[in-house]
């Protein structure tokens, strides 16, 4: 059995679908809660509020205790000035399967019906909640098309919606992180007045990462890979013979690369050795992703490569990954795209954590 995410929201609680002003983008990942809200100003779109905090426990530990989440929300809402309780959220990455399907719509059949048939065969009758995004087709005449599909177990989606409802939130929509970040990429090109057609987004998550190719305003591919913050910290802790919290503090203190123009010190040389195998595996997956994109775009390459996720907050992260991949890499900085009221230090600390939240807050916002 398959249900769309919107239909399930309506079934769980009809009052969860709302209308009105810009909702809050809410992102739960690992032990972190991040949120962002946009507003319309005379000069254009701006960030009304943005914030992020550590929950002190994995988000799923709150499933039976929504009041704990409500307490964290009250703290964040009060400190950052969020308005309302209507949110756009995304399913936690570890509960979501994202994959690409080929489909052919027969005469009289909609794309949604054709995709549903393909997904039903792949999921073998499991009770899942499914959503999809058609992939940009270079040749519109081709009968065989592609779609990126997001699927989650029905019970996981129901429990997640129950957590948000129990914490006093009104859920306007559920989204996926790749689509949220795609909106940021589109706005990045718009804000810089560059004719950016396609980009690769490397989103490094706590437990896994995603490689997303955006072609214009459309999603082309979204792939999960095993490289993650947890793997980085675990490998550092193991080879340096120290607890993981100490490895995190060490990385926060020294960063991933030396200051621009400085020679690598002993720590950064050792770090490159330690993470060499992980970086090689990531480079291989990126190569596969770019080859796939080139096969769908008649050999076109990506114009820019963006880095997102918590690890992007460490000093020198773009330089570190650029050297490892032998390609220019830049940070996806949502707070450099839109006006906001944060100080420069606040924005620098917050930006790596709030990318998905800003992308969720942009859902349905016009002028893209």
Could you give a short description of this structure?
The protein is of the alpha/beta class. The chain contains ten helices and 14 strands. Mean pLDDT is 84; it is low at 12-20.
Tell me about this structure.
With 368 residues, the chain is of the alpha/beta class. The chain contains 10 helices and 14 strands. It has helices spanning 5-12, 66-80, 111-123, 154-166, 177-191, 229-240, 244-254, 266-296, 317-325, 344-361; strands spanning 2-3, 24-29, 32-41, 44-54, 86-90, 97-104, 128-134, 144-153, 170-175, 198-204, 209-215, 218-225, 304-308, 330-331. The strands form 3 sheets. It has a 5-stranded mixed beta sheet with strand order 4-3-2-5-9. A 5-stranded mixed beta sheet has the order 12-11-10-13-14, with helices on both faces. Helix 1 (5-12) packs across helix 4 (154-166) and helix 6 packs across helix 7. The longest helix is centred in the last third of the chain and has 31 residues, at 266-296. It is globular and about 65 Å long.
């Amino acid at each position: 059995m398959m249900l769309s995410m919107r239909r399930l929201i309506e079934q769980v609680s009809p009052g969860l679908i709302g209308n009105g002003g810009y909702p809050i983008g809410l992102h739960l990942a690992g032990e972190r809660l991040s949120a962002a809200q946009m507003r319309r100003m005379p000069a254009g779109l701006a960030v009304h509020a943005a914030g992020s905090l550590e929950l002190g426990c994995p988000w799923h530990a709150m499933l039976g205790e929504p009041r704990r989440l409500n307490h964290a929300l009250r703290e964040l809402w009060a400190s950052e000035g969020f308005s309302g309780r209507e949110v756009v959220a995304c399913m936690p990455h570890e509960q979501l399967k994202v994959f690409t399907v080929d489909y052919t719509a027969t005469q009289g059949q909609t794309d949604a019906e054709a995709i549903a048939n393909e997904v039903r065969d792949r999921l073998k009758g499991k009770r899942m909640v499914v959503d999809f995004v058609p992939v940009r087709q270079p040749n519109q005449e081709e009968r065989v098309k592609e779609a990126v599909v997001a699927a989650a177990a029905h019970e996981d989606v129901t429990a997640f919606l129950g957590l948000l409802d129990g914490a006093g939130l009104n859920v306007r929509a559920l989204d996926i992180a790749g689509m949220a970040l795609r909106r940021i990429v589109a706005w990045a090109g718009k804000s810089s007045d560059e004719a950016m057609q396609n980009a690769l987004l490397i989103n490094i998550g706590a437990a896994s990462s995603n490689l997303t190719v955006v072609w214009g305003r459309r999603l082309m591919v979204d792939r999960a890979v095993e490289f993650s913050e947890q793997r980085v910290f675990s490998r550092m802790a193991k080879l340096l013979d120290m607890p993981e919290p100490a490895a995190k503090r060490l990385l926060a203190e020294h960063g991933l690369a030396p200051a621009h123009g400085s020679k690598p010190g002993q720590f950064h040389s050792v770090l490159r050795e330690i993470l060499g195998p992980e970086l090689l595996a990531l480079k291989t997956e990126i190569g596969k992703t770019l080859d796939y994109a080139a096969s769908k775009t008649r050999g076109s390459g990506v114009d820019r490569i963006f880095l997102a996720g918590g690890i992007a907050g460490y000093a020198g992260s773009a330089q570190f990954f650029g050297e490892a991949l032998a390609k220019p890499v830049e940070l996806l900085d949502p707070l450099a795209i839109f006006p906001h009221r944060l100080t420069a230090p606040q924005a620098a600390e917050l930006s790596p954590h709030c990318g998905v939240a800003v992308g969720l807050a942009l859902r349905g916002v016009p002028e893209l």
